Amino acid sequence: MKLLGLEISRAGASVPARARVEPPVMASAAEVETSGTANPQPRMTEIGWGGGSKLSTKLPRVTPQRGEQHGTVFACCNNIAGDLSKVPLKLWQRNADGQEVRVRDHPANYLLNVEASPGVPAKVMRFALVYAWALRGNGFAFGPRDGGGELELIELVDQDGCTPLKAGRDRFYDFTDGAGVARRVASRSMVHLRYMALDGWTGRSPLQVAAETVGLAFAGQESAARSLSGAHAKAYMKMGDSYENDEDRRRNARRLKEHLSNPNSDGVPVLGPDDDIKSLDLTAADQELLSSRKFDREQLAAIYRMPPSKLQMLEFGVKANGEQQAIDYLTDCLFHWSGLAEQTMAMAVLTRSEREAEFFLRHDFDALLQPTIKERNEAMNKAIGGPFMTPNEGRRKIGLEPVEGGETLNPAPNMTRDDTQPKKGKDE
Are 196 and 206 in contact (CB under 8 A)? Predict the structure, then answer.
């Protein structure tokens, strides 16, 4: 029933359903490529960084897995993780007078230097954590506490399977622990190393920030790999039509191809009157592109603050001896990464009351600057006779037992004159 052009019906009357409009079918089911967990498409597994500009879309995707395949990226991450894990990570406390003392009776000492979790050495945990951090910009480890607030273990988790969540200013992490239990824990129970986190939480990889530069380096490596593997066309052959049948033509083509690909050939193929071979060797521009990979190594090293000497890039000459190179590497590279790692790990392994009591972590880099026996003895001799160090303090440093009377500082050489004795000669 219509009234004034409006459709009027009784309450509860059924309204005819509108016809369902299906979306247009763009391809048949057989032509559509499915993507799932059993057989995912590359777009699901090779998600990476880049693509910010139209030019970068033509470059290889910069992914953590792809980055490991580049020797310079792997060397940078391996050096940083290896050197930070091979030195002790000690716990200290700064007293009110500024004196720093070693704290030994704390569970963090054992977990960070002996056994991080059941069956996992602490160095293995620290290496994997820092390696993932340098490569991905984020490194995750689970650090639960018991009912008394004591740290129980520091367990590595799947770096791809850990998802940070945000609730206001609080952060939570979804992951599966070593026992296969799905967990959601607060940030106080996680060791989360993050690099270049502009918001304090979201880490970014150095490869991500310089995605276009890294993509160019990956493209150069792929081009070099294709050239060496023979994936590109090395030459093409032009054959005449003066053959009695196709079998003769194919036989001649196989003969020429085998001659060109045989490393033991004399390099002088026998051609027919209508045959021709055109070489497609690398042009000067292609060779220049491959030589630019040296520049790619320098750029990748600069991204990680890695000195060229640590990557065996010695073509520019050595300006200093090995000891000075080690000092430059320590001050320019390792101090940058270790300072971030120490404070971030302290947020997880130390309670707030301990941090307020001036507890802190520090890498002991003395192991990287081991002196020779001659240098050690000369330094000890000067320190003990300075006076700077007691004889027993020096003996303890080199693993010797203390001796009687060794707790007294030796006077300085210019302060050993005895004024009680009669003066002689010029001293009168």
Answer: yes
Whose CA is closest to 218, among 98, 65, 60, 109? 60
Q: What's at 62, amino acid-wise? A: V
β-bridge mates for residue 171, sequence order? 166
The SS3 call for residue 87 is coil
Question: Cα(329)–Cα(311) distance, rounded to whole angstroms?
Answer: 11
Cβ–Cβ < 8 Å for 253, 239: yes
For residue 346, report the phi and psi dihedrals to the nearest 5 degrees. Answer: -65, -30
CB-based contact 410:387 (threshold 8 Å): yes
- Partnered with residue 262 across adjacent β-strands are none
Sequential DSSP letters for 303-354: HTT--GGGGT--TT---S-HHHHHHHHIIIIIHHHHHHHHHHHHHHHS-HHH
Summarize pLDDT for 185-222 with one digit per residue, the tens: 999 999 999 999 999 999 999 998 888 888 888 777 77
Residue at 246: amino acid letter: D
Q: Per-residue pLDDT tens for 317-334?
A: 555 566 777 788 888 999
Residue 13 CA to residue 227 CA, distance in Å, equals 76
